[in-house]
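Please check this today:
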Amino acid sequence: MEVILLERVAKLGQMGETVRVKDGYARNFLLPQGKALRATKDNKAKYEGMKQQLEARNLELKSEADKISGKLDGKTFVVVRQASEAGQLFGSVSARDLASILTDAGYTVGRNQIVLHNPIKMIGMHTVPVALHPEVEVTVTINVARNADEAERQARGEDVTQRREQTDEEAAAAEAASFFEKPEEAPGGDQGKGEDAKTD
């Protein structure tokens, strides 16, 4: 299906361009969301009539998005969730969760603006793009941790899951070392004395 884009659509084209897309994509996304019109003679004439209005609205929305992007770009948000020792979340952090976290922090962001292809399922630092406008995209960091202390450690660059595993390994290594050291020393000392006794 051929459509006329009413705004810039990533990987598709700029406002006013006529592009060919799959029927399902047009019917289920572009047309209902008001991002495009079917490319008919009537709609082409209609677009020409509303072109200035669309361009003015686009500039207005872009300037709003620019203002928000200046405050939002590079910010870090902490999300506390329950997780296993290995760092696997019991549940996940979805785009809807992130939109509500950003909104609670005072930023006007919709769920559809969070560019999260798969929900977050592990603790750690996650970089998430936010499309404030078709021409304005920022990135935020989502710090997913089991508690506030862990979030602070992750923010400093520590790997909290790896650290726990290392301490377990270190403890096991220390235990093994202490187990092997004692038997080696004791027989060596006794044998030496025994040999000395025989030679005397």
Observations:
- DSSP finds five helices and eight strands in the chain.
